[in-house]
Design brief:
Layout (H helix, E strand, L loop, with lengths): L1 E5 L10 E4 L19 H19 L17 H24 L8 H17 L8 E7 L6 E7 L7 E7 L11 E2 L3 E4 L7 E2 L18 E12 L7 E9 L19 E2 L2 H9 L5 H7 L3 H6 L13 E5 L20
Parallel strand pairs: 3-12, 10-11
Antiparallel strand pairs: 1-2, 3-4, 4-5, 6-9, 7-12, 8-9, 9-10
């Protein structure tokens, strides 16, 4: 038989369920006290009660319906970190415009192309950005011949272009000249950089620029021989360095090197002074006097210092061509 209705804790979405007693009541009959008997009506009531109870118990497996609250806000630490990155990016942008006379400023349209090219090359090389850092991206496309310094962030963090300059990469069609390889090249502490002596070669050219200019050494790399029609490859020492300030710097923006990446003297100084590629060098310099000697004594390393040189190619027949926007290459 059914008894009174009592509250239950099984289903928060329902206020009440029917409670079943542990058996039928004792029924008084004319044959005496205490004799049990079941009637069809009693059985039907019990069946109905069981069904109702089972429906009520089934409801406990359903999650309670709640109204959607406001969207979760990022933790204060994340907001603070993003603000710090944005402030450092702004500082570097201002310093670049002031310290590099012919610097290329950020541009919303071309910046998207540069960032897309960089992300594509990083993904192809299985390199993951695990913390906020600056990277140097070079486009070897003969019609571009520029670099950008990009502030990269992990996950869905925003990427920002700090600025750039003209460069010269490997020249095709000239014997002994290699095509600068594409890829991601880390600046490692087991390869020692050096500084230009400022001496002239037999052609009265200071190939590495004025005395004291930094030379970043990315080790031996495989590169295509630019004078060979069959795409034969060889090994080159991949360097980033300044060039002769009197004769060759004015030619930046066109392929001209033997495979290295030539940059203006002012960009060389900016990369050096702000430690753009020196994250590993700065950490190791305290224990390694050789590395400490390479770093400028008056430097101001950025808190976003990184270690990655990324070389891309936005030429129409290259693998990266698909990221161009409306036929526009990475250059302006």
């Amino acid at each position: 038989m059914l008894s009174k209705i009592v509250p239950t804790r099984f289903n928060p979405g329902a206020a009440w369920v029917l409670h079943i007693m542990r058996g039928p009541r004792r029924l008084r009959t004319r044959h005496g006290h205490g004799r049990r008997r079941r009637t069809g009506r009693t059985t039907r009531h019990l069946g109905l009660a069981c069904a109702i109870a089972l429906l009520a118990l089934g409801g406990c497996t359903q999650a309670p319906v709640t109204e959607a609250g406001p969207p979760a806000q990022p933790p204060a630490a994340a907001i603070s970190a993003q603000a710090a990155v944005a402030a450092e990016v702004a500082r570097l942008q201002a310093d670049l415009m002031r310290e590099v006379p012919q610097a290329i400023p950020p541009d919303p349209v071309s910046d998207r192309v540069w960032i897309a090219l960089a992300k594509q090359r990083l993904a192809a090389s299985a390199v993951v950005i695990d913390q906020a850092q600056v990277i140097v991206v070079v486009d070897r496309n003969p019609r571009v011949q520029q670099l950008r310094i990009i502030a990269a962030q992990p996950a869905d963090g925003p990427w920002s272009v700090i600025g750039g300059s003209k460069v010269s990469t490997g020249q095709a069609g000239r014997r002994g000249y290699f095509i600068t390889p594409t890829g991601v090249f880390p600046h490692l502490t087991d390869i020692l950089d050096y500084r230009a002596l400022g001496t002239f070669n037999e052609n009265h050219i200071r190939g590495l620029g004025r005395k004291g200019m930094r030379v970043w050494d990315f080790g031996w790399q495989t590169a295509e021989k630019g004078w060979q029609p069959d795409h034969e490859t060889g090994e080159i020492r991949l360097l980033v360095h300044a060039t002769d300030p009197d004769y060759l710097e004015q030619r930046l923006g066109h392929p001209a090197s033997k495979g290295c990446i030539r940059v203006p003297a002012s960009m060389n100084r900016f990369l050096d002074f702000h430690g753009i590629l020196d994250a590993d060098y700065e950490r190791a310099a305290a224990q390694d006097a050789r590395l400490a000697e390479i770093l400028l004594p008056d430097r101001r390393p950025t808190e976003l210092a990184g270690r990655l040189l990324v070389v891309v190619d936005s030429s129409p027949d290259s693998a990266e061509a698909s990221v161009r926007l409306g036929g526009r290459t990475a250059g302006r």
